[in-house]
Amino acid sequence: MINVSELKKGIVIDHIEAGHGIHIFKQLHLDELTDPVVLLTNIPSNKTGTKDMIKIETDFKINMNVLGLIDPNVTINFVQQGKVTSKLKLTLPREVVGIMKCKNPRCITNHEPVKDVHFYLVDESEKIYRCEYCDAYTKFKPEEN
Ligand SMILES: [Zn+2]
């Protein structure tokens, strides 16, 4: 089991839905870090049965939008000198930039190199977003992005 006191300084992303840990790992590009990173999967949890957890020993600034999009129920613990100094609860972002791809095959963003496409939340429970260019709705799926 993870022991926060082993972590001098860093971030613990807790209560990740089981199976989402690997998507968060990839989307946050944690494989590119040279700092110690631990991904734990299928940890027994009272709340949800099982959960995933990521522990990063670094000052790395995590992209909260990416995290909130994949799993709005995670808790982020910031650790300093072996103690949790602050906790952060996430919500689904209202606006997403540069993470999603438009599902509309005729959308200009799928034919021209459009950078930083904005998507706006239209349905919170379904994670559906609207493309700023064509207004088409796209459901966010972590495994497809
Ligand atoms: Zn579009």
TrEMBL record:
Residues 95-139 form the Aspartate carbamoyltransferase regulatory subunit C-terminal domain. GO terms for cellular component: aspartate carbamoyltransferase complex. The keyword Magnesium does not apply. Pfam families: PyrI, PyrI_C. GO terms for biological process: 'de novo' pyrimidine nucleobase biosynthetic process; pyrimidine nucleotide biosynthetic process. GO terms for molecular function: metal ion binding; transferase activity. Residues 3-90 form the Aspartate carbamoyltransferase regulatory subunit N-terminal domain. Keywords: Metal-binding, Pyrimidine biosynthesis, Transferase, Zinc. The keyword Metal-binding applies. SUPFAM superfamilies: Aspartate carbamoyltransferase, Regulatory-chain, C-terminal domain, Aspartate carbamoyltransferase, Regulatory-chain, N-terminal domain. Signal peptide: none annotated. InterPro entries: Asp_carbamoyltransf_reg_N, Asp_carbamoylTrfase_reg, Asp_carbamoyltrfase_reg_C, Asp_carbatrfase_reg_C_sf, Asp_carbatrfase_reg_N_sf. It comes from the Bacteria. NCBIfam families: PRK00893.1-3 (NF002063). PANTHER family: ASPARTATE CARBAMOYLTRANSFERASE REGULATORY CHAIN (PTHR35805). This is Aspartate carbamoyltransferase regulatory subunit. The lineage of its organism: Bacteria, Bacillati, Bacillota, Clostridia, Eubacteriales.
